[in-house]
Predict the structure.
Amino acid sequence: MRDILEDVTKWMEQGTEIALATVVQTWGSSPRQEGAKMAITERGEIAGSVSGGCVESAVAEVGLQVLKSGSPQLLHFGVADETAWSVGLACGGSLDVFVERLDPKQFEFLKGLLISEVPAASVTIVRGPDADVGRKITLSTSDPSARYGSLDSGSDDPTVELALQVTEPSLHELEPEGLQAFVDLMPPPPTLIVVGGNQIAIGLSKLAKTMDMRTVIVDPRRAFATKDRFPEVDQLLQAWPAKAFESVPLTASTAVVMLTHDPKIDEPALELALSSPAFYVGALGSKRTQAKRRERLKERGLSEVDIDRLHGPVGLELGADTPDEIALSIMAEIVASRHSDG
């Protein structure tokens, strides 16, 4: 939802009616995963994607129908489906897409959670009696008492409990028999913390913006951590890492990259980052530098397990030479780590 938030907000402010299409189930080589979204306005404008281009036109047509009728629709596209073939879904996969009219009040509630970077979830009935299909409850998973909507089941507590237990967007059976609901999870955006405001950091921060990552630059050297050098980052901290990390939580959605090549700056930061839940920790330096660094980290008391989490030399092996190429190799490794099952 975050990737279409700006467009949907603009259309809502214009009083435009909007249909929302969400991928609720995939099989095989579907180009987009569960939770991918596309918004369609009554004028036929589109934001987002549910298939990377394969079925967008067909979904857009249904979106216009839903806006006219007010009745949600659950669509299935697959390689054995004539409609899917006609719009180009011949990649060996299939997907189900739920199309509904977007409720302005529910959207405003969800937007408030997303803007505040609060982890959110929504549960929508996508299969069942017509009177039930489309019912939705949206909530903060960090404070479940903050919720909007209802599945009208007498008590939403079991549904809320389900939303808190689910670890990825997915379909679930609900009581009574015959109801199927899609649980959509919307965690806070990933955060990239770069320690060291050098030229590689400039390229990395630009790439992070295109990836919708919140970016923080940390450097105690005032000449490096300046707004002129980093006009687009979310936060500039002219402080030593130990102090800076007090105001920037290291969570499972955080990637940390050390670029100063100065042990006085990098290694205290590595000690904190490697013992945190951060999903990625990388450090600039040759294999020889990394070996010496690992020994010093061991002397600092870090376990082998924590030290083995360090990506160093940092970045995928792309033959990178320039600062921008090195930044690209680092971002590629961050993305790979974020989507890794391990």
